[in-house]
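User: Teach me something about this protein's shape.
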Amino acid sequence: MRLQPVPIEPADAPEGVWRGDELGEAGGATCPSGHAGLDAELPGGGWPLGALTEILQPEAEAPLWPVLLPALAQAVSVRRQPVALIGPPHEPFGPALAAGGLPLESLLWVRADAAPARLWACEQALRCAEVAAVLAWLPQARLGELRRLQLAAARHGALLFVCRPASAAPAASPARLRLRLQPGPDGQLDVHLLKRRGPPLDRPLALPGRGGRLAGLLRAGRSAAEPLPPQRPAGATVVRLDLRRALRPVAASSAAHAAIAASHEEAVHALDCPSVAA
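Assistant: First, the predicted structure itself:
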């Protein structure tokens, strides 16, 4: 006699059994990400506490702070404890982070170039009860090392983010949550959910790639740079002036003007660095 499989309907599923086509629970406490669209797709409605969240980037300098800053600021505000930054690619820009709710005195910046030193510092920070969250850049971390960090985060219920290159996506990872960030058009960030307790997400989530203040300043700058349409009152007389002779004395200072313009251009690029959260 051949037995026929009987499908289990959602209403008949035993209590506590998770179906793979449904968004599962976080399996512990969570911290809201500060982005309603992202929280709706994360198990438990936020970043998992006591678990490893792995963030893959095309390059270490890609924007990151707009995604993580709201949760880190909330963790500092609730626990009154600092955030440990392990091996960031740029020096943290305190005023911009403070504008996003993460004051400079709440940052522990650990400078470590060697991979073993970064792993050691990350593990020690996770073991410290006086640290609210850990954000580490570990491009060369191996599977066993990530498992150690996962266990350390689970013991102390810490909020842990590990940044790795996008090329690590095919490799196995013990992370409970895995995301890939990709800069998109108009300053947006496309968030691809590679691993979660739930069905795969077909489309990436679009999140703002810049803070609200910086986006407003850039919009204002573009508007100010746009030439105004010529307006000529009725009956006005047009006078044409030869400015070539008047501009000759300024030519000697062209190098200084070029240096000033270059410095302004560098400042704009600096605002896009991942260590700047404006």
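Now, about its shape. The two ends are 69 Å apart (CA to CA). Strands lie at 30-31, 47-48, 51-57, 83-86, 107-110, 133-137, 159-165, 177-183, 188-195, 205-208. If you'd like, I can walk through any region in more detail.
User: That's plenty for now, thanks!
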